[in-house]
Amino acid sequence: MKEEFTTKSRRWYDQDPVLSSAMETLEESGDDTQIKIALNLIKIITEHNIEDSKYEEVSDIINATEVDLATQKRNRWYDLDETVRTAISMLQNCPEETRHAIAVEMAKMVVDEIKKNEEEDEEDELDEVEKRLDAHE
Q: What's this model's pTM, rounded to 2 decimal places?
């Protein structure tokens, strides 16, 4: 059964299927990956907001985010780390059109980071096997 996305979604990001998928994948990824993605998101969101003239300076973006962070509850998966929490709050405050564009970039970043981590894990395993083989020679 195909999942249906409506304006009555439980979470704000479920209204956009790309963003919803990216958020779900990010939630299931490791802490290091989440933080790397969050830092990249902050950079991308800042660039988009300044390009769109929504804010004139980075400090304006930070101030708007701090107000939202102060009023929000802290019981969501992304509230466990301040960097991730800030990035997601900034994303939530973007205009819908900008949010969708960023969601596409975010989805690519998450997938690329997961692939990179998997490749590094495979390399580590191969190195370990080579060390064991060398020890037996």
A: 0.70
